Each structure stands twice: as structure tokens, then as C-alpha cells.
What we know:
Blueprint: E1 7-13, H1 17-24, E2 31-35, E3 48-50, H2 51-56, E4 63-74, E5 77-90, H3 92-103, E6 106-109, E7 112-116, E8 119-122, E9 127-135, E10 156-166, E11 173-176, E12 184-191, E13 194-201, H4 209-217, E14 226-233, E15 239-240, E16 243-245, H5 261-279, H6 285-297, H7 300-315, H8 318-328, H9 331-341
Parallel strand pairs: 1-2, 1-9, 2-6, 4-11, 9-16
Antiparallel strand pairs: 3-5, 4-5, 7-8, 8-9, 10-13, 10-14, 11-12, 12-13, 15-16
Amino acid sequence: MLPRSRQFDVIIAGASFAGLAVAQRLVGRRVVLLDRAPVGRGVTSACGAPVSIVNAMGAEGSILQVHDRLILHTPAGEAVWPLPEPFCTFDYQRFCELAWARARVEFLQATVAGRSGSTVHTSLGAAFSGTLLADATGWRAALAAAPGSAYVNRRWMAFGIESEVVCPHEPGLHFYFLPEVRDGYAWAFPAGEGVRFGVLSYLGRSKLGPALEQFMSRFGQRPAAVHGGFLASGLRPPVVDGVFIAGDASGHCLPLTGEGIRTAVLAGFECGDLLRQVLDGERTRDQAEATYQAFVAKSRRKFHALTWANLAVLALPRRAVASVATMLARPRVLGPLLAQYLNLFEKSATRPGATLPAHSGRL
């Protein structure tokens, strides 16, 4: 059913992590959230994130299992990295439903078919106008990259697939640097009664089915239903033609680790705060754009450092990767390293009362 009005304060394209985070900062405004799938459908993520991020989205009811360490496996052995704050694996559909309930915005199942200025054309044949526009459609950047846009959709594109099966597994978030995926890694994330097994190619190879089967066979398992997709790393301009961009649409997925939920949510919160300030007359659109650009730019060096680390992992023999992982596991090295990693997308001073998960040696 189409909304009665075709005019909105904000149109958000994409109803996953970044889009829902933007929407939560705009409660009480006339907002429509567009997505080609119903809320909570079409999972592509491994759904692992800091507990603080899940709580900040009001989705703690989606948590399946909490983890306090990373375990890096190589042919030469394993290195255990204690986490300075707990991560969790969670149920994607439940997460999205809880986050949307907190946002209290209108939802319309439709695909972005194009854009003319502030007017968004949809697959329903209906067009909607927004005072402000936000793109959170993932690597496709469907709204920002509409025909005629200045958006350049060139980023580092990794690709991963995953299958969840019911079986026992040691707690923790497990990463495997094994021959099955020479240009990436594999993972096993326990999630309650199930385990999420996946493989990722840093170089964007998409035919990973045989690698996933070989990896899972190490545990006496075979893939069930498989999901996955591209992961877009490499920061792009966060505002293009007046469209605010968050999450994978702007390359916010982290190189090396492939983590994207935390950065998508933090960017979404910042974006939503700024959009609200524009609507409230606290900032001009130009000021909001400049503040959002500065927010992303503060983490640019850390993104670049992760990119170089990603290139090193691609170039190094697996035994060398094992040696580096063991060396970094030393507390005096690992503590500051993870503190810097978890400090990506620090909160800028946008408005008194705006809140994000606090960071004090943690996220």
C-alpha cells in the first residue's frame, strides 16, 4: 500500500544496519524507509558485532551468543586475541525488526529506480520527494549512483559466502587462514545452537562454493542454505549531489577484517543526527555535509592502515601470517592495537544530548 503523502522530510534507501541507524535518529519526523525486501529479509552478513552496538540499536533481544576472544588459526598453529569488549553473534531478522520498531518510521517495499534531484523514483511506478536523502543500499549505492550522479562506484570489493548448520563448536570468533582460500580467509562463528561457517576472497572471487565445502568438511559438515555477497571497502565521498551515504554504499566496511556492521551503525547514527539538526534548523545543509565529511575523514588513516595490512596478508606466506598473529597477541601490543581498531568512527560533537556507545578503551 502506497503512503498517502509523496512528500517526506527524509527518504532513506536501504533497511539494513546503516539505514535503520539513520532512521532511529529521526523519530517523530516524516520519514520513509525504502528497501527491495521486507525488513529483516535477505541477510548477507555473518551478523557478528560488538554487544554495545547491538544494544545501542535496541536489538539486544536478537543476541544468540556472546564472545570474548578472537582465535586466529593457521597451518602453523593458533593465536588467541582476548577482546577488550564483548562481541556477539545475533539473529539478523530479529535485529532488524527490533531496530525498526524503535525507529517508528514508515516502510515501503520498493526498489530505487532512479533519482531526479530530491525526487526518488521507485519500482512501484511512484515517485517520492524528500527534503533530505540518505543512501544505505549497500555496495550498489542505488540512490547515490543514480543515472547522472557524480558518484564514482569504485572500491575494493571482497566477496564472501556463509552457511549455518547445527553443530557444536568452541566459543569465540574463529578466523582461519588456510589453503582453501589463499586470497582471503574462512571463519566459524558459533551462534547459539548453530555455527556460521564462511569463506571470503579479498579479491572478489565469487565462485567460492567448493572452498566452503572443503572448509566445512574439516568439521565433518556440509553447507546447508548459503548466503553472502560483496563487501565494499575503501572510503568514498560520504555526500554526493546532496545525498548522505552510510555503510557499504560509502565503502565503510573495513579492509582486512571485513567488519561492517559497527561502522555502518556508527555512520548511520552520525548521519541521522545531522539530518535531524538540518530539519530542526540547528545547522544548514552545507554545515551538515561538512560535519559528516569531517567525521568520516578522521578515520581515513586507519582505513588506509587496514588496507596496507590487507595487502600484506595477501602477499605473505601463511606461516608468516601465523608469526605476525602470534607476535600481535602479546598484551602490550594487542591492547593498543585493538583500542585503535575499535575507535574507528569516533563520535564528533554534533549536538548536545546526541549519544553513541561510549568508548573508554572500548567501543
